């Protein structure tokens, strides 16, 4: 393919700039914060209604029974499909609609979607409603341009990626929406910069550790056993043993940024004793329970069993060496690292499109965190999947998150070019 062949498509995208801005702003204004999972249904219905007008058939799928799904916060997804009527493959663009909490430090209204200096600000602008908007504009331009297409195009807006994707892509994959007899190529418009192709991601193990103690009066702590002190011993052992060991391990995966080429462990939270949020003075009690959530990111060179054993060994050692130490550990989520081969069709098509649109060779990277490729790979058994989209990775989950309009425009052209070449069988 040459750019000239897709000039009608690029012309449509250029003329859709204001449309793209409005679409991105409207998506940001849905406060789809997860947890708890707000506004999923109105958001997916907005996406579905728009795509119906472009000739897509639309399904709304509620992931009943998945974590967090309830009457107040139902886990809704949308899958829209355009069939050209000609035999050919299916290219699927998948974006998650949920966003993380806003946090402190914002100078903009997180859900006003202000446009300033060519940037749209708001929670989810970068991660990843800008990518969702760009992919919609890309496929609408392909269809409206009148050029011949083969096969089918799908767009999905899915739930809960930020909390593991169990109510979104995992559920859809279990229902067959990412099976090989339905979908051939998947592009996930995560914010990984417009000149990079993301081949995959590191692994993750989330777990909860609970230390136990014995309640007593705070004026006589010697009559009790402080669970928080026991948890302090766990943290100290991590600092002395686990962190130095992880710092010595590096991966051959092209993970960015540089610090993510190592194994990492984040302590997501520690809660012990009296519940938070109580007003007034605390109750004078020795805490009999303390809970810690750990977020262990591991490399393709590491075995999940060994990753877990390192933690188990530390806890067992404390159990035998520290008086009164008792604990429980509970698995929450585990994901094996995933990486698509550089010779896969979707990789080659997207890389060629970046060269064609941007005039530069792409970088091939892997993500420091997981995203929904894990479920498409593990459950759907579909390997031809990458992440590519607008936005700067380091802005994700930050205050004053934004996406640049120019990046969305360029990525829309890249996605349209890649999709066209995949549909038409132009990938060598």
Report a brief summary of the structure.
The chain is of the alpha/beta class and 428 residues long. The protein is built from 10 helices and 16 strands. α2 crosses α4, α4 packs across α10 and α6 crosses α7.
What this model shows, in words?
This protein has 428 residues and is an alpha/beta fold. The chain folds into two domains: 3-201 and 337-423, Zn peptidases (Aminopeptidase, 3-Layer(aba) Sandwich); 203-274 and 282-335, 2-Layer Sandwich (Alpha-Beta Plaits). 32% of the residues lie in helices and 22% in strands. The protein has ten helices and 16 strands. Strands 1-2-6-3-7-15 form a six-stranded mixed sheet. The chain has a four-stranded antiparallel sheet with strand order 10-11-9-12, with helices on one face. A three-stranded antiparallel sheet has the order 4-5-16. Strand 4 and strand 5 (119-121) form a beta hairpin. The termini are close together. 46% of the residues are buried. The mean pLDDT is 96.
Looking at this protein, list some descriptive labels.
Aminopeptidase; 4-stranded antiparallel sheet; 6-stranded mixed sheet; single chain; 428 residues; alpha/beta; Alpha-Beta Plaits; elongated
């Amino acid at each position: 393919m040459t750019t000239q062949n897709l000039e009608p498509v690029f012309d449509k995208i250029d003329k859709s700039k204001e449309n793209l801005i409005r679409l991105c702003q409207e998506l940001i204004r849905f406060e789809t914060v997860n947890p708890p999972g707000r506004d999923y249904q109105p958001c997916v219905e907005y996406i579905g209604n728009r795509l119906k007008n472009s000739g897509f058939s639309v399904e709304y799928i509620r992931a009943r029974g998945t974590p967090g799904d309830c009457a107040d916060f139902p886990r809704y997804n949308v899958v829209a499909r355009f069939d050209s009527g000609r035999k050919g493959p299916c290219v699927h663009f998948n974006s998650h609609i949920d966003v993380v909490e806003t946090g402190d430090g914002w100078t903009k209204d997180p859900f006003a979607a202000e446009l300033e200096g060519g940037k749209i600000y708001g929670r989810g602008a970068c991660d990843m409603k800008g990518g969702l908007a760009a992919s919609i504009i890309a496929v609408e331009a392909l269809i409206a341009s009148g050029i011949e297409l083969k096969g089918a195009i799908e767009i999905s807006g899915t739930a809960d990626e930020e909390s593991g994707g169990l109510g979104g892509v995992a559920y859809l994959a279990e229902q067959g929406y990412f099976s090989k007899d339905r979908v051939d190529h998947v592009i996930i418009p995560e914010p990984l910069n417009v000149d990079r192709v993301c081949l995959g991601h590191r692994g993750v193990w989330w777990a909860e550790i609970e230390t136990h103690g014995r309640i007593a009066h705070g004026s006589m702590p010697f009559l009790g056993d402080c669970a928080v002190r026991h948890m302090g011993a766990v943290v100290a052992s991590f600092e002395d043993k686990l962190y130095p060991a992880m710092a010595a391990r590096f991966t051959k995966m092209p993970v960015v940024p540089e610090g993510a080429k190592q194994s990492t462990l984040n302590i997501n939270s520690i809660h012990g004793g009296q519940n938070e949020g109580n007003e007034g003075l605390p109750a004078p009690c020795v805490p009999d329970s303390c809970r810690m959530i750990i977020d262990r990111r591991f490399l393709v060179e590491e075995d999940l069993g060994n990753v877990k054993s390192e933690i188990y060994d530390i806890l067992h050692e404390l159990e035998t060496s520290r008086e009164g130490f008792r604990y429980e550990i509970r698995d929450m989520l585990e994901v094996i690292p995933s990486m698509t081969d550089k010779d896969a069709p979707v990789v080659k098509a997207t890389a060629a499109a970046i060269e064609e649109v941007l005039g530069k060779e792409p970088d091939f990277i892997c993500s420091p965190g997981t995203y929904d490729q894990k479920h498409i790979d593990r459950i759907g058994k579909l390997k031809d999947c990458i992440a590519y989209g607008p936005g700067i990775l380091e802005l994700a989950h930050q205050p004053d998150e934004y996406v640049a309009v120019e990046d969305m425009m360029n990525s829309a052209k890249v996605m349209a070019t890649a999709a066209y070449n995949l549909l038409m069988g132009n990938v060598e």
